[in-house]
Amino acid sequence: MELSIGEMALIAVAIVVLFGPDKLPQIARDLGSGVRKMRGAVEDIKTEIMKEADNPVSEIKREIEKVKDAAKDFNPMKDIEKDILTEPKASNEPPKPKPVDDDTYEGPVSR
User: How far apart are CA 71 and CA 13, in angstroms?
Assistant: First the structure.
């Protein structure tokens, strides 16, 4: 809402007529104090909203950083290469025959 100079002058004259010139400074001080309090309250609300809005975002960012750090050290090929390069452990048991070579192997039983 924009006020022209004429409208502001009319409001000023109405205030002087209603309250008198001696109360005008006190009214201006009270009005300024009220505006300052309102601005402070609005700033407090903005700060509180930003805190609440920032917490989940920063928490998500921390989780993303943890995943990134874990992904840096992860190398699935390392485990495969290790398995290929290392020889199988020698055991005292004889190797089990494959089902094709085993005459006693009956295969899956259907009922």
Answer: 73
* pTM of the model as a whole: 0.40
Q: 108-111 long-range contacts, Cβ below 8 Å, gap at least 24?
A: none
Burial class (CB in 10 A: 0-12, 13-18, 19+), 93: exposed
Question: Amino acid letter at 23?
Answer: K
Tokens representing residue 43 in the block: 């700033």
The whole-angstrom distance between residue 56's C-alpha and the CA centroid of its chain comes to 3
Q: Which stretches within 1-111 are classed as H helix?
A: 5-19, 24-73, 76-85
Six-digit token pair at 24? 């005008």
Assigned token pair, 75: 């190398």
Residue identified by tokens 């409001």 is 11
Express each pLDDT in 32-61 by its tens digit: 999 999 999 999 999 888 877 767 777 788
